[in-house]
């Protein structure tokens, strides 16, 4: 098999093949809240329960996480594409939360989606600046799951419905 040299085009097209659940990562600093759509989110370890997120340092939400060392990962349901669009754009921080979604505030001040697929509230325990991003390792301190709902997926440059997941025959 002949391999291709990596180009920007190949990179983008290749990464589009990694379909993943769409999330909104939120953080709050001095009473102001911020949030961004993210798919670079993954499980890290079960003991202690931890996850990784990759955040571009030019995103407004990055500063909020760095300053407070806390974030929440809100997994979206297949009906919440509009929320994904809102948080991927450059609307004012408050406008992002006010236009769509049943947002609640936790005791620690983080915004969490009451009608999402799942919420994981994390304390940052480590981070690494690499390339344009910071990889944050967060220890999960609280969660809420709605396992009867289906996830919103992003892949092939589009929002997708997972549908009922079936075993490969
Ligand atoms: C489907 C999708 C997935 C994204 N995933 C990430 C991600 O994992 N990390 C990241 O830094 N930005 C990601 N982005 C881009 C941010 O959502 C976008 O830059 C956002 O405007 C940042 O908002 P902020 O500057 O208000 O924090 C993604 C965008 C989309 C549409």
Could you explain how this protein is built, in words?
The protein is an alpha+beta fold. The chain is built from 4 helices and 12 strands. It has a single domain, classed as Roll (Pnp Oxidase, Chain A), CATH 2.30.110.10. Helices cover about 20% and strands about 45% of the residues. The strands form 3 sheets. Strands 3-2-6-9-10-5-4 form a 7-stranded antiparallel β-sheet. A 3-stranded antiparallel β-sheet has the order 1-11-12, with no helix packed on it. A two-stranded antiparallel ribbon has the order 7-8. A hairpin with a 2-residue loop joins strand 11 (about 150-155) and strand 12. The longest helix is centred in the middle third of the chain and has 9 residues, at about 60-70. The model has no long low-confidence stretch (mean pLDDT about 95). The structure holds flavin mononucleotide (FMN). Flavin mononucleotide binds near residues 37, 38, 54 and 87.
Question: Which short descriptors sum up this protein?
Answer:
globular; Pnp Oxidase, Chain A; 12 strands; 169 residues; binds flavin mononucleotide; alpha+beta; three-stranded antiparallel beta sheet
Give, in order, the helices and strands: HEEEEEHEHHEEEEEE
**What hetero molecules are bound to the protein chains?**
flavin mononucleotide
**Which outline best applies?**
globular
Q: Structural class, from secondary structure content?
A: alpha+beta
CATH superfamily caption:
Electron Transport, Fmn-binding Protein, Chain A
Main-sheet strand order equals 3-2-6-9-10-5-4
- Helical proportion? 10-25%
- Low-confidence segments: none
CATH class: Mainly Beta
The fraction of residues in strands falls at 35-45%
- Total of domains: 1
Largest sheet: 7 strands, antiparallel
The overall strand count is 12
Count of helical segments? 4
The CATH topology is given as Pnp Oxidase, Chain A
């Amino acid at each position: 098999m002949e391999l291709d040299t990596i180009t920007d085009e190949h990179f983008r097209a290749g990464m589009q093949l990694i379909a993943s659940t769409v999330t909104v990562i939120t953080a709050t600093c001095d009473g102001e809240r911020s949030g961004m759509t993210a798919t670079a989110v993954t499980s890290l370890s079960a003991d202690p329960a931890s996850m990784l997120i990759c955040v571009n340092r030019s995103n407004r939400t990055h500063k909020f996480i760095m300053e407070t060392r806390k974030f929440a990962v809100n997994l979206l349901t297949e009906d919440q594409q509009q929320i994904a669009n809102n948080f991927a754009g450059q609307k004012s921080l408050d406008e992002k939360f006010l236009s769509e979604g049943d947002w609640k505030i936790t005791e620690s001040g983080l915004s969490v989606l009451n009608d999402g697929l799942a919420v994981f509230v994390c304390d940052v325990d480590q981070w690494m600046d690499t390339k344009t991003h910071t990889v944050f390792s967060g220890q999960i301190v609280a969660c809420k799951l709605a396992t009867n709902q289906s996830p919103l997926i992003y892949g092939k440059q589009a929002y997708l419905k997972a549908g009922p997941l079936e075993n490969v025959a």
